[in-house]
Design brief:
Length: 897
């Protein structure tokens, strides 16, 4: 029986595979297939039956009962008939028993069928599962010699049939549940989140299945932008949800949302009924009310699918009808068959471009108004509209410049994997194929089938291996019959490529089609110009922030040169800084490729070159050719002689020279007035930061001098330690540089070293100048100079906080036996640990009231002996390497700086 059960479940799994979609198809062919598989299953179960005397025990009645419950008595009888005949031919008594059992299963299942829904079983239905099998095995009680066997076999057979039925139902329901979940997930992917209508992807799938004679209706809300502007995006979303509800009620499962306020219907009904559906939708939306979305008007364009018509062609015709509906007042339905080929002027006096172009212009205006960086999805939508507008265009791509490289930002009709592919400028000029001059003027280029292969080959030769392989794998590439390339030009520079291709006709790009494509190119140029302005503002803001955070003059110069190079797309940018000591300009930073840079002099005397001309006049100077620029200090070579040049003065608020920016561009891309304005803004930011840097340098120098004077004044109380402050500061600086400390920590270390003994101002002279050893009470007074000194320096403005730590903790010990806070190990700040070595070394090698000066070797030996107890072991090793033996007589210490 175990084999029988396994065969039953295997066959059930095979039957479950006939269910391939949800909702379950009611096809007669599929029903017939399931009946056939059920009949074969019963025969297979009988073939592998288990014999008990004259009786056969198997699970043949399970599929018979399930088929009867699902399809009725006749279907169950058809499945059972072959098995009954087989048993009658095999054994007359066995056949009669099989016939009785089969009739009981068919009869009880038929009686149970009205009360048991096999597709929606619940826990309360499980008690009904054994009922169809109550008659199976009852014959055992009729024959006297088998009554004993019946008492044992009948309950087991009833239980086994019931369990097998539940297992079979479990397999079938699992398959159906999987189909249902898959269907629900697919519906979510194909559903617009806001309106719960089908999205564009589902629309394209359903449109591809629309049969000849089916109707496409494109719908568009009239003047919907006014509602958004007046009531805000929240009310706009509520209005769109309301429109979605109206469309779902009027045409459930046949309505779609294509764009922000664009919708579609796909209806396989007579045209009169389609018109009635559209009229009902328009009437319901136009009903007056208090809500902001009341009294909406809806324009509609209707097209009927023709024989062998492609989906794109059907959309194009409905698109044309929708445009006419909107340009004739809106709120109406226009059908394609009612559009004459030549419309009288009196009928439509104001005939504008096709609706797709109008829709693209509206999309462009919306993107311009949003004031945000555009994404690949935005460019994809514009490209899609361009391809949809031109009837015979099947594919296209949009390549946008970023620096010296073009990147594919959108594709239509090709694999999305191409998005992001980099393309060099040289390869784009080769693909254009009409020379760089026409390319920079934005002249449209059209190629036919016979020329496209040669152009592809020339462009491929300029690509890298990965890019070439990506294009070679495009199957549609060989099918192209016509290609249109439109360079998008801004300020005399190609900033994008709009490529449109046709696999339909070689004459796809007529003069009208080219003009339509140029409209899209103009819109893309406008968007790119806005993006460029946003990018410039972001770069300038970032430059201002970065420069304000930078205290390094070299970093400021490098950042300024790099930003000018990126924003003005130069081949080379040189920043010259004014050196007041020599009264000349010296190179400070350069950006751009190292190859091809013109040679620059080591310094530029006052009055030499364009830079000094710009500084003397206070004006930006431009020249189209470096070789022809009067007094150009950049020495042109063969590759840069024809470059355009621009010199930008950097002047302080009182018109004093700070430096100059020298910018180069390739020949044929001269600097324009817009470039001059941008350069002036960059110079404005740079001069402010350079002035601030000079001012801060003066303040730092003043602060250093003041602190040094204070440190020297402290030595006046202890004449025998003169020079101690300068020596320990110089030694601490060398240790900090050996540790590669950041500049601000080096400054904190110097300041802490300068003021480390400021707390001795509070120590009486009798203790400070005592020649002998201090008493315990005197030592406690002396040890108070560290915390008192930290309190004093905390009141000095602009002093780095880490300098306070040097003053307070430079007498702490690595083993925790120091003062004032008994810190140990790494609890002691790094700068204090560094300075402790310097302070002790100088004390050992200097004369004090209570001792003489040690030699360098003696002092270093004592310090090494204190490694791990008084001093940080790692810093002690470094100290031994950093501090060389002083020149001169032993015991002279380190010479004062």
């Amino acid at each position: 029986m175990l084999l029988n059960l396994c065969l039953l479940l295997t066959c059930t799994f095979l039957v479950s595979l006939t269910y391939r979609e949800w909702p379950v198809s009611r096809s007669r062919n599929e029903h017939a297939l399931r009946l056939l598989l059920a009949g074969m299953t019963t025969l297979l179960l009988v073939y592998y039956t288990e014999s008990v005397g004259a009786f056969k025990l198997d699970l043949r009645y399970v599929p018979i009962a399930l088929i009867t419950l699902r399809y009725g008595f006749r279907a169950g009888a058809a499945v059972a008939l072959p098995v009954v005949v087989w048993r009658l031919l095999e054994s007359q008594s066995g056949g009669l028993v099989s016939l009785v059992n089969t009739l009981s299963v068919l009869g009880l299942s038929s009686l149970l069928r009205p009360t048991l829904d096999m597709t929606r079983l619940t826990m309360w239905d499980f008690w009904k599962v054994p009922i169809p099998f109550l008659g199976v095995g009852a014959a055992l009680f009729v024959v006297p010699e088998s009554r004993g066997l019946g008492l044992l076999a009948y309950p087991g057979m009833l239980l086994l049939h019931s369990v097998a039925t539940l297992l079979v139902l479990g397999v079938l329901h699992t398959r159906l549940k999987l189909l249902q979940v898959t269907h629900d997930l697919r519906q979510q992917v194909l559903t617009d989140d806001l309106t719960r209508l089908g999205n564009r992807r589902r629309f394209e799938e359903e449109l591809a299945r629309l049969e000849t004679g089916g109707h496409l209706v494109l719908l568009d809300l009239d003047d919907f932008r006014r509602l958004t502007d007046t009531h805000g995006p929240d009310e706009s979303d509520r209005a769109l949800r309301y429109v979605g509800q109206v469309l779902r009620d009027a045409a459930p499962d046949h309505s779609f949302r294509l764009g922000h306020d664009s919708f579609a219907l796909l209806l396989d009904q007579p045209e009169a009924q389609v018109r009635a559906v559209v009229a009902h939708i328009q009437a319901q939306l136009a009903e007056p009310g208090a809500a902001p979305w009341a009294a909406l008007t809806l324009s509609a364009g209707l097209a009927t699918r023709l024989t062998r018509e492609k989906p794109a062609e059907l959309i194009h015709r409905a698109d044309e009808a929708l445009y006419l509906a909107k340009t004739n007042g809106g709120g109406r339905l226009v059908a394609v068959e009612h559009m004459p080929r030549r419309l009288p002027v009196s009928t439509l006096p104001d005939l504008r471009p096709r609706y797709s172009l109008w829709q693209a212009q509206r999309t462009t205006v919306e993107l311009l108004s949003q004031r945000r960086p555009l994404t690949n999805a935005d460019w994809q939508e514009l490209l899609r509209l361009a391809v949809a507008t031109l009837g015979d265009v099947s594919s296209g791509s949009l390549n946008i410049r970023q620096g010296d490289t073009f990147f594919i930002r959108a594709v239509q009709g090709y694999t999305p994997d191409l998005v992001g592919t980099p393309l060099s400028e040289v390869s784009q000029v080769s693909w254009y194929g009409q020379g760089p001059e026409a390319w920079r003027r934005g002249v449209p280029r059209v190629r036919r089938r016979q020329d496209i292969g040669q152009v592809w080959a020339e462009a491929d030769a300029r690509l890298g291996t990965e890019e070439r392989q990506a294009f070679e794998e495009l199957g549609t590439r060989k099918a192209l019959k016509a290609s249109l390339c439109l360079p998008v030009v801004l300020g005399g520079e190609v900033v994008a490529h709009l490529n449109l291709e046709s696999t339909v006709a070689e004459d796809a790009f007529t003069q009208t089609a080219i003009q339509d494509a140029q409209v899209f190119a103009q819109q893309m140029a406008a968007l790119l110009q806005l993006q460029e302005r946003w990018h410039e503002l972001e770069q300038l803001a970032r430059l201002h922030g970065d420069l304000n955070l930078s205290a390094d003059d070299q970093a400021v110069a490098a950042q300024l040169a790099t930003t000018a190079h990126d924003l003005l797309r130069t081949t080379s940018t040189l920043l010259l800084r004014y050196d007041a000591a020599q009264d000349c300009l010296v190179p400070a930073a350069q950006a751009g490729p190292a190859l091809g840079r013109p040679s620059t002099p080591a310094l530029l005397r006052r009055g030499d070159g364009l830079s000094w001309q710009a500084l003397d006049s206070g004006q930006i100077i431009r020249a189209d050719r470096l070789a022809d620029a009067p007094g150009a200090h950049l020495q042109p070579d063969g590759s840069t002689a024809g470059s355009a040049v621009m010199a930008v003065p950097l002047l302080s608020h009182d018109r004093q020279p700070l430096g100059a920016l020298c910018l180069l561009r390739p020949a044929g891309r001269p600097f324009q007035a817009t470039d001059e304005a941008l350069a002036a803004m960059i110079a404005s930011v740079g001069t402010r930061v350079m002035e601030r840097g000079a001012h801060l340098s003066d303040l730092r120098a003043t602060l250093e001098a003041s602190l040094n004077m204070l440190g020297v004044a402290l030595e006046a109380r202890d004449l025998e330690t003169q020079g101690h402050t300068q020596r320990v500061r110089a030694l601490a600086q060398r240790m900090g540089e050996a540790l590669a400390l950041p500049e601000e920590e080096l400054t904190a270390l110097r300041h802490g070293a300068t003021l480390h003994d400021i707390g001795k101002l509070s120590v009486p002279d009798t203790i400070l100048l005592k020649p002998g050893r201090l008493t315990p009470e005197e030592r406690r007074v002396m040890e108070q100079h560290a915390p008192l000194g930290a309190e004093l320096v905390s009141r000095i403005p602009f002093l780095h906080p880490q300098a306070h730590g040097v003053v307070r903790w430079h007498h702490e010990r690595w083993d925790g036996a120091g003062y004032p806070d008994r810190l140990a190990g790494t609890q002691i700040p790094l700068l204090a640990r560094v300075f402790a070595l310097c302070d002790v070394y100088d004390a050992l090698t200097s004369v004090r009231p209570y001792k003489g000066a040690m030699t360098h070797e003696q002092a270093l030996g004592i310090i090494m002996a204190g490694s791990g107890s008084q001093f940080d072991p790692e810093l002690t090793v470094l100290f031994g390497k950093v501090v060389p033996a002083p020149e001169g007589a032993p015991g002279a210490g380190i010479p004062a700086a």
